[in-house]
Amino acid sequence: MDLIFNLFVFVLASFVGFELISKVPPTLHTPLMSGANAISGITLIGAVLITGSLPLLLPESTADWVVGILGFLAIVFATVNVVGGFMVTDRMLEMFKKKK
Amino acid sequence: MGAETSSFLDSAIMLLYLVATSFFIIGIKRLGSAGTARSGNQLAAIGMLLGVAVTLFDQQILRYEWIVAGMVLGGLVGAVLARSVAMTSMPELVALFNGLGGAASALVAWGEWERVGAAGLGPDALVTIGLSLLIGSITLTGSLMAFGKLNGFITGKPITFPAQNILTIVLMAAMLVASGLFAWDPSMEMLFWIILGGSLLLGVLTVLPIGGADMPVVISLLNSYSGLAASMAGFVLNNPLLIVSGALVGAAGLILTNIMCVAMNRSLLNVLFGSFGGGDSTAGGADSAGTATDMIIKETNADDIAIQCGYANKVVIVPGYGLAVAQAQHVVKEVATLLEQKGVEVLYGIHPVAGRMPGHMNVLLAEADVPYDQLYDMEQINSEFSTTDVVLIIGANDVVNPAAKSNPGSPIYGMPVLNVQEAGRTIVFKRSLKPGFAGIENELFGAEQNQMFFGDAKKSLQDLVRALKENE
Fold this sequence. Notes:
The complex is a heterodimer of chains A (100) and B (472).
Chain A: H1 2-21, H2 29-39, H3 44-52, H4 62-95
Chain B: H1 3-30, H2 37-55, H3 65-84, H4 90-116, H5 123-151, H6 164-184, H7 190-207, H8 215-237, H9 240-263, H10 268-273, H11 302-310, E1 314-319, H12 321-325, H13 329-341, E2 345-350, H14 360-367, E3 375-377, H15 378-382, E4 390-394, H16 403-406, E5 425-430, E6 450-454, H17 457-470
Parallel strand pairs in B: 1-2, 1-4, 2-3, 4-5, 5-6
Helix pairs in contact in B: 1-2, 1-9, 4-5, 4-8, 5-6, 5-7, 5-8, 6-7, 8-9, 11-17, 13-17
């Protein structure tokens, strides 16, 4: 049942996405793309949940080490995506000015 | 902690996720118009901060050391990249961030699989782990290939070998079957590694045959994939915030991909499997109406252009990627300012595929302090040409080629172009008569009202600046 419910959410959100973005002027396509790209770094939350689930700072079992390393890498990659994405989008949009 | 407290905490987290989701939606909405875009991006960033912050209160989390360490490291790297990148390299940076996002989503699926173990996961969870791994890995290697091609590490020409398309399609089908089998019988651990390896290879194979000119399409598509990958990771973890945000990004990427395809008059399948846009020397050969040999080319110089523009009422500048390559955006702005001081109206006409990613040229001109209300898109500018005296075409070629309208034999026939020939005078700034990306002759060069100004774009524009100043 979870899967079906999640599919509902997914499909509805996709429709919202299409509606939101179809009217964006070409001038803003690059910042839109890099801003959207930063949002896709939301997977950071998943990475945090997995990494934080380990009870020990230095795991005892090999299996936990594997989980820890995978989670840690995911946190690093996703944070680069999020922080870099939002910052560079802001840098671009700061330059967009109306005629004085 | 009692059961009641814990369920209260879970509900509170979910409600705050809902707030974060709303921030994303309003943020994207505000990104859609130039006046509100910056605040939209900031709103989305706050939504992200909120989402991550409340996740730290999740009861599943027992330790924070590695989380903090990873975030500090990633944040530093991200901040340095974002601050130091040159605006001309935006496509590379977006490709790189895409790849990292895809990798993170694949790692989350992999981590969950290792954490819970195959036995503890139902078919629902397993099918989403398979898909998350699949899309995330394709995004990673596809984006790295795109990064390499944009950066020049890998040749921008399509790399092809016999039966390549068949191999890609068979591999794609095999990976989907493998993901299904993986959910059916999780005891076959081998399947997990097959999906991982196969999809990493698939990402490489998909981007390998795509030429440099088609990179805007590829980047948009990979952006969509990175969203889908995040959404799939949300399915794995039953996390609605991930599902919604990922779906929004997936939709955004698809729309931009479609806009790019329409702008080049190509279908997505043709871009992915057509191996176009790498300078195919046979394209548009004998059957095109005017070849370089029988065109009468009229050359001009900076002083003459300065006079023509100085007496004009309206001048339209059509910038192409050649302008960005020559780093000439600032000189263009200088030319425009000098003309405006003489009372000339200056507009910029920007074709959707003018840069190396959607909207790239607008960013480059914004960096040079060109106000965005002077930047006209294709539809807006096409209605301006009939009242325009002089069009300066700088580093652009295929996007002003009239063959796209008039010559059904031309490979770019049907591609929407800027109707510059409607203006009184067109002046093409170009290094030589060499054809553009698509390898097609341009009849405009020999047209009655056209003049050529040969040379490096930046140097030519600097000459023009000098000539305009002398004419004062």
